[in-house]
Amino acid sequence: MARIERATAELFTYRLDRAVGGSGVAAVDVIIVKLADADGAEGLGFSYVLGGNGKLALLAAEDQLARFVRARTPAPPRAAWQSIAASFNRSGPGPNLIGLAAIDVAMWDLHARRCGVPLGVAMGGEPRAVPVYGSGGFNTQQAPEEAAEAASSHVARGLRAVKPRVAGAAKDAKVIAAVRAAVGDEVALMADANEKCDLVTARRLLQLARDHGVLFVEEPLPWSLAASYARLDAAGLVTLAAGEHAQDHRQLLAMMQPGTLGVVQPDLAMIGGLSPVMDICVMAEALGTAVSPHFLHGLFVHLAAASPAVTWLEDFPLLEPLFDGWPDIRSGCAMMTQSAGHGLRLSGLSEQLLKG
């Protein structure tokens, strides 16, 4: 393989017109990594910090590129990830992993482009249609009728699953009932609490979820309360999902192995890129756990091609305006594009934001 002759990291802030999601995200700091080797092959990667404050992640990415990537012959992506991650033993994950995520995506894109195949094929998979659930358009402030309307709009687009936001409040019962009535029994219903419950309100939420046939409840508790998650799971009310705040796949394994989490949801930036999510998928296949990565369905559809553990992809529009080349959702499913690499390229908006 040709050595890497150009390796850059840049940062820009993407401000939304209005806050979205259960956490009220209004701005995202985006780290862009570009690679080019001596043969002219290129790779594009990205990572992000929801809510902003991504400067430390940018510094981490720049340092990693200087120490491990630039002017070197690249190792295969997963081996490169392991070498870089091993250097964090004294400084910890945090911004280091967020920066590494952008490099890892770029390394995979470069590898797939050099092979002349889509990323999912380079990962060892083959194209398959993966179900997508609708997660955008929901928030905890909306009335039940508004949540029902948002759910109906997803179903009108052909999606066969929706995930409204809940908060462990009394209103949850009306929201879940309204959405269920709007979409009917043939559409899968999930619920996302965004870590807003305590153990008491989480138990009430899970009882509501069982009564309305909810497929899984996401993050009923803060991620760090592993023992409380185990207590909720022991009640056997409904499948639990979490993982978007995990920065170590061993943390996820500790909750996957006993069956506490039935659905694991790694986040690209927090977990450090595509390589560790591949490891999570291997663990999930062995344990019978479902994988449903945190948003970015147009990127994770490549991972789904390589792993049958990926059972759902999440349609939560956030970074989509920043890139061109996202795959279409057809008949409620996504399938990877046939372009070499991940198929994404910077949009005009991103180019403008990079120029400041």
Commentary on this structure:
- By secondary structure, the chain is of the alpha/beta class.
- It is 40% helix and 20% strand.
- It has a five-stranded parallel beta sheet, covered by helices on one side. A four-stranded mixed beta sheet has the order 12-4-15-14. A three-stranded antiparallel beta sheet has the order 1-2-3, with helices on both faces.
- Strand 14 (329-330) and strand 15 (333-334) form a beta hairpin.
- Helix 1 crosses helix 3 (94-115), helix 2 (77-86) packs antiparallel against helix 3 (94-115) and helix 9 packs parallel to helix 11.
- The protein is globular and about 60 Å long.
- The two termini are 35 Å apart.
Between the first and last Cα atoms, what is the distance in angstroms? Answer: 35 Å
Task: Give the low-confidence spans.
Answer: none
> How much helix, percentage-wise, in residues?
25-40%
Number of helices: 13
Which term fits the overall shape? Answer: globular
Structural class of the helix and strand makeup? alpha/beta
Task: For the largest sheet, list the strands in their spatial order.
Answer: 7-8-9-10-11
- Can you write the helix and strand succession as a string? EEEHHHHEHEHEEHEHEHEHHEHEEEEEH
Radius of gyration: 20 Å
β-sheet strand percentage: 15-25%
**Total beta strands:** 16
The whole-number mean of residue pLDDT values reads 95
Biggest beta sheet attributes:
5 strands, parallel
